[in-house]
């Protein structure tokens, strides 16, 4: 997902030396920011069908699939679809699911077992992760400041949350 977690994920991947970084999402402004952060490919899920996205990813990766998938969208659909992007021996990391979204159907044999995939959940980081995020922010402040697309008074918290839910903003800054 091309939200704040996804944008940070692109920066972390780029700094770790990833040669190919693919972001799948549906908001053009967020995808553009991911491209600016270093994504080599962006796929707009609103302009493609699931099978098309899988074909594009296979084309980009020479038919192999993705070595590491970072789910940062927080939706069951992203989880189900993302597991299918994995290359044999790949790793799937889920950091976007922050609340109970219920059951998510996955073809466990085809998408995990047969691929010898590794699955990693991420719930809460520690101080080291916070330090890493702050250091990335320090190095990329002008880019990451673009995530704050709206500044609203604290009294409009409800409005800010609604705007974020509708993806009208990437992040809203609440000002006392």
The side-by-side strand order for the widest beta sheet comes to 3-4-5
Order of helices and strands: HEHEHEHEHEHHEHE
Radius of gyration: 17 Å
The main β sheet shows up as: 3 strands, parallel
What's the shape? globular
**What is the average of the pLDDT values?**
93
Number of strands: 7
Structural class: alpha/beta
Q: State which percent range the strand residues make up.
A: 15-25%
Q: How many H/I helical runs? A: 8
Which stretches are low in confidence, meaning pLDDT under 50 for 5 or more residues running?
none
Helix proportion range: 40-55%
The N- and C-terminal alpha carbons lie at a distance of 30 Å
Account of the protein in words:
- The chain has 176 residues and is an alpha/beta fold.
- Helices cover 42% and strands 22% of the residues.
- A 3-stranded parallel β-sheet has the order 3-4-5, with helices on one face. A two-stranded parallel ribbon has the order 1-2. Strands 6-7 form a two-stranded parallel sheet.
- Strand 6, helix 8 (157-165) and strand 7 form a beta-alpha-beta unit.
- Helix 1 (4-15) packs parallel to helix 2 (28-37).
- The two termini are 30 Å apart.
């Amino acid at each position: 997902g091309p939200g704040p977690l996804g944008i940070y994920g692109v920066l972390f991947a780029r700094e770790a030396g990833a040669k190919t970084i693919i972001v799948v999402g549906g908001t053009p402004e967020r995808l553009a920011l991911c491209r600016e952060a270093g994504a080599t490919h962006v796929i707009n899920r609103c302009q493609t069908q699931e099978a098309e996205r899988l074909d594009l990813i296979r084309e980009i990766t020479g038919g192999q699939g993705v070595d590491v998938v970072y789910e940062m969208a927080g939706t069951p659909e992203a989880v189900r679809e993302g597991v299918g992007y994995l290359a044999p021996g790949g790793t799937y990391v889920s950091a976007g699911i922050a609340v109970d979204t219920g059951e998510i159907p996955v073809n466990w044999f085809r998408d995990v077992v047969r691929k010898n995939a590794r699955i990693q959940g991420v719930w809460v980081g520690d101080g080291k992760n916070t330090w890493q995020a702050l250091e990335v922010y320090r190095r990329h402040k002008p880019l990451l400041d673009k995530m704050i697309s709206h500044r609203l008074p604290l009294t409009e918290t409800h409005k800010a949350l609604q705007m974020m839910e509708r993806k009208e903003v990437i992040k809203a800054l609440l000002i006392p």
